[in-house]
Write a structure and sequence with these properties.
The structure holds 2 protein chains of 2 kinds. Chain A is built from 6 helices and no strands. Chain A has helices at residues 7-35, 49-76, 79-111, 119-140, 144-171, 191-231. Chain B has one domain (3-224). The chains are: A mainly alpha, B mainly alpha. Chain A binds chain B through residues 74, 119, 122-123, 126, 129-130, 132-133, 136-137, 140-142, 146, 149-150, 152-154, 156-158, 160-161, 164-165, 167-168, 171-172, and chain B through 149, 152-153, 156-157, 159-162, 166, 169-170, 172-174, 176-177, 180-181, 184, 200-201, 204, 207-208, 211-212, 215-216, 219, 222-223, 225.
Chain lengths: 232, 226
Amino acid sequence: MTPLPAAGPIIRAGRLLTVLGLLGMAVVYLLALAHTPVEARQGLAQKIFYVHAPAAWGALIAFVLVGIASLLYLWLHDPRLDLFAEASAEVGLAFSAVMLTTGPIWGKPIWGTWWTWDARLTLTLFLFLLFLGYLTLRAAVRDPVERARFSAVLGIMALVLVPFIHLSVYLFRTLHPQPILLKPSRPSLPPAMLRTLLVSMGTYTVLYLGFVTLRYGIGLRRAALLREADDA
Amino acid sequence: MPEAVRSALAIAGKDLRLEFRTRTGLLSAFVFAVLTLLVFNFSRDQSLISTTDLAPSALWITVAFGAVVAMNRAFIIEKEQGAIDALLLAPVPRGAIYWGKFLANLAFVGLVEALTLPLFVLFFNVPLGPALPGVVLTLVLATIGFVAVGTILSAMVVRTRFAELMLPVLILPFMVPPLIGAVQVTARLLGGRPLTEVLGWLRLLGTYDVVFVTLCTLAFSAVVDE
């Protein structure tokens, strides 16, 4: 059986990164409230954008990394990759929950409805459900090696599903604001807003790393305890 | 005929023979599909929503639910008396086992669809006539995609607790792209639009099929190999 690294230092590193990320969040809130101008048409409601878009970004990183770790797991059969995928999926679930709750809070004043069956909304909801399904599958398989194989297959399949989801979005009529940062032409955002958005995205990346490291450390500790129990 | 193809056909033949001898799976999946169609008829105010507006979604939700019920049994029959171990011990490539199961599921789900479609026309009174070839093509394309995914997922969930509940939870997100496409195509075709208008969607369905059939064939050994 592959020896697992010690959990202690990893958990400590995860804590440190998480604290850094939370401090970054405070900076993001200050910047969003004091530094950025009030958007002309949307008013204060637009401020939630600095939380919503980076949360979506975090969920996306989490999702892609689950897929890549899954692919590597099937190749290398290293249990650490499986534990990382598990950690990333849990954090991704949390980030997509933030994305799905901040979205409607913005949608109510701007679109006049909490929820609309717009393509992108529907499909991000399914992204959330994919994370949920992935974690449900993990919870339902008892044998750790079998669990790792099954969830790796599901993780890869989910990653392949995303481009199809994306394509359906463009073929389907959509209400959602179009991408303003990652698009072929230059970002169409005033500098102060762009700065805040980028700081927030960096913060969410640090938070993602902190949460995942912490959760990965906990996963390592749990796996080590289970092995001890099996040996005893 | 290559060895792997013969093995796949033998496995598919075995599954279908089992199915036709007992008929419980087929019958229950079909009755389930009919009941879903019936429930749809009572779920709307007939004076407000015309049947043609409701028809595409009714057809596709029925097909999707029927398919999930049908696919659940693919590996359950192998689990009883540990038949899966014998199947895996056979000197047959893993891909061939996957294809055997996939083809059997495809025939099974296709049969349920073929039985449901005339009832759909009857209950919803839709003018299917000229749209029939396009709708059948859409049925085939969409079904291949989600049966490919369902086959590998059912091989996984059969080893878990709450298998029957787990398959719908896992497969429905994967059914979304084929279902959105299929509903869009069906709605346009039933509305008398030409097939050329929906080529984009059909291409998407076809790409989905190629990608997921390939991926699931490759990934299957990771599911069954200890």
